Amino acid sequence: MDLDALVAKAATILDDAVEPFVAGHRAESAVSKKGNDFATEVDLAIERQVVDALVAATGIEVHGEEFGGAELDSPWVWVLDPIDGTFNYAAGSPMAGILLGLLREGVPVAGLTWLPFIGQHYTAVLDGPLMKNGVPQPSLASAELADALVGAGSFSADSRGRFPGRYRVAVLENLSRLSSRLRMHGSTGLDLAYVADGILGGAISFGSHVWDHAAGVVLVRAAGGIVTDLAGEPWTPASRSALAAAPGVHAEILEILRSTGQPEDY
Q: If 0-12 CB within 10 Å is exposed, 13-18 middle and 19+ buried, where does residue 184 land?
């Protein structure tokens, strides 16, 4: 497979999805999901549109957030999030985008992140470089946490699960002792793209959904960043969390995570 050619075809398909994405801003909930999560009619329509176009143009099946699809361990599979940051999107915030990753036998090898309201789109194949609006970007330099913006996922302090709310509070508290520049954008895909672009020095995701991460993992790695889970193991589609950061910052955040203790202790 020619990854650059596949990305070029996929980019045209995402460009075609921008108009309905922008037109549907502030769309209301159409499908209730687990907890207080939901999908809008725009999520569903864009997924159908992009899936049909990708299969026709590339011959590669798609695993989407809303309708599922091909298995993630297929020889080749696209992974699609039609609207990342759905709460933001429905509320009218511009912090939302379309995420598309390509897995080869479970390994992320290409990624596309479209941020239509901000006028930014990012693409990359695994060996780089990161492309922003079609222009190659420089590799990430080593940085220090004290000088960096850090993105983090949203949560309730009283929530339970794999990463309880009180554990997340402790992580952010400990991070704040070295960086007072924590940011909560409400979009994992945006956070990862901004790590790749050097806007954020690092980002922590307590989530496990492959469609939130696959595209951004490639962007960060192509830019020379590091992506692991919160335990420091290389990120894979089976990972239950993610830590993406520039060299230097990643090691500092990982040390803070380790000093915070195990999530089950909270």
A: middle
